[in-house]
Each structure stands twice: as C-alpha cells, then as structure tokens.
Request: fold
Amino acid sequence: MTQAAQPLKMQRSRRNAVWDAIRGRDEAQESPLDETISFGELVWAHHERQEKEVYRGTLNGPLDQEYRRRLKLFKQEHGDIMESYWCRYEASGVALTEMRLPRRLSNFFRRDSVLRLHTATDWRTENAPTVAMWLHRWETAAIKVSEVLRDTSERIALHWIFAASSRLLGFVDRKSSSKASDANLAIVLREQENGIEEVKDYYARAGENSARIVYFRGMIWGTAVLAILVGGSFLLAWAFGWLDPRDEPTYTLFVTIAMGAAGAILSVMTRMARQDGFNLEFEVGRKSMRYLGGLRPWIGALFAFALYLALKSKLVDFIQNVDHGIYFYATAAFLAGFSERRAKVLLDSAAGESDSDTSGGPKKRTK
Reply:
C-alpha cells in the first residue's frame, strides 16, 4: 500500500467507527470471540472443579482456572449471571443471565437488556423423566417470556420461572435419587402445576399489555412517516407550481388526510380503554405488531381520502342542503378514520348508485 493511500484508509476506518458508534454497534471496538462456550460446558467445568478441587480443599487449581476461563467466555457472550443453581452430586444447573445492549437512538436514555434462562439438567434428571419433562416445560415458558415480554414484566416472569426450575432441580439433587419418594414427588409436582398456571396467566396478561404498547408505538411511527411523505409531497408539488396552498381544495385535502389518521388513532385508543374491545395476537412478534400498528394511520387516511373523492365527485351525498366546506370534509374524514366500517358502507352505497346509473336506472323487483 502506498503512503498516500494509508491516510485515506485510516480516514475511512475512523468514519466507519463514528457511524458504528452512532448506530450503537460495538463491532468496531470489540474483537470477535475466537471461542464460544455453551452453558452445558460451563456446568461440566463447574462440577469438575467442585468435585476434584474445592471439596478437597484445593484452590486456584487447573480445573478452577479452566472454569473461570469458560465463565469469562460465557459472560462475554450472554452477559452477567444474575441467578444460578448448581447441582451438588451431578453436573447440572440453571442460570439466569442479563446482557446489557449498547445505546441506540431509540433507547438512548434507557439501555435495553436481554434476559435468558439457561438450563443443563440432563445428567441429573436421567433417572427422573417426570422431572425432566417439567423442566422442559419451564424452559419453553422462559423462551416465550424472553421473546414477547420486556422490562419489569419480563424480569418478574423469568425470576419466577428460575425459582420454580431450581426448586424442582433441587428436589432431585440428592445423593441417591431413590430417596425421592413418590408421595413427596406428587406434592412437588402439584406445586409445579399451580405455579405454571399462574405464570401462564401472568404471561397472557403481560403479553396483551406489552402488545398494546408496541402497537401504539407503531401507530406513532406510522403517523410520523405519513406526515413526512405527505408533507414532502406537498412541498415538492408547491415548488413545481402544481399546487397552491392558498386554494381551499388543496388545504382541505391535506386536512382530510390528517383527520382520517387522527380518527384511526383515537379509535384504537378508545378500544384499548375497554377490557375486551381490542385484542391482539401478541405471540406473532414485536416487529410484526409494530408494523401492524404503523399501518393503522395509513388505513384511516386512505379511507378518508377515498371518502373525500367520493363526496367531491357527488357519488356520495348522504347529507342534503349542507355547505360542504372544510369543516364538513374534516368531520367526515375523522369519522371515516374512526370507523372504517361506516366508511365502507358509504363507499358501497356509492358503488351501488353507480351500478344503477350505468344500467339505465334503478332495477325493478321481480315477483
């Protein structure tokens, strides 16, 4: 590489580093890991250290160093270990980790975290298939919670699941698994049944509330994009002389679009206030929910725009002897956005009238 090209490359790398920092990416500052450690490997290293060194009074031995090396790699990949339970007689355990995400523009003042429940229990539950099945059910519930819930509700649910998993694993963590009588196991499983039903109920309620928040945020972003595109189109048309902002039809059209979007947002907020007025399938994912919310203002604006064209073209005239000024169109647009079904009835009536006109008049009934 020539000396003249080196400063240019350094400048590009510095510019890329600044851009990565703005987007909140740490790839420019961190080197990729040469090795990744699964939780099962960490559990095995912990058990080997405990059995062959710690319980025999040996500290800082080779097994301890290997365990700490794996622990460091595991924490670099998954974050700090918040809670953990390690079995005494077998290489099994559960842990709850928290990975702090870098700051981004969307969460600059509050950093998000990724919480995960890690389990490695096959060694301990080899001769306890019922307990293994219940631990699998708790692990499945933890996956759902981590993917759907956020913030406080996610922490509560995951700590709840961790407590139940460690309680169940601790029950079978005995020197001889035969000591776990069927009567005691039945009591523990009854507690697990009640616990998982409570977690499911909490997950459903928290998931619905979380989905409503995500949906509402999507509506705000969708409204912002709609305002930018419509406002940009208006400014571009004004610059080319295609529109005059002083003309009443021009600003009436844009007021109509805005009122349609506002009606759609108010309709969703009104239904959210009712207990069973607004239900969402929150397990489709937060991204899909956000996109659906972003489309809602567009639907209201498009219905309002279609109704405005139908009124201007005289296809629909449901109120006679009324001055069709800006307030009339704004009210009709708001109602169209607030309830698409009413707007659809008006548009269907317009289509019916046009069909009767093209057929040469209203159709006669046949007996």
Remarks:
- The chain is about 65% helix and 5% strand.
- The radius of gyration is 31 Å.
- Residues 1-5, 26-33, 353-367 have pLDDT under 50 and may be disordered.
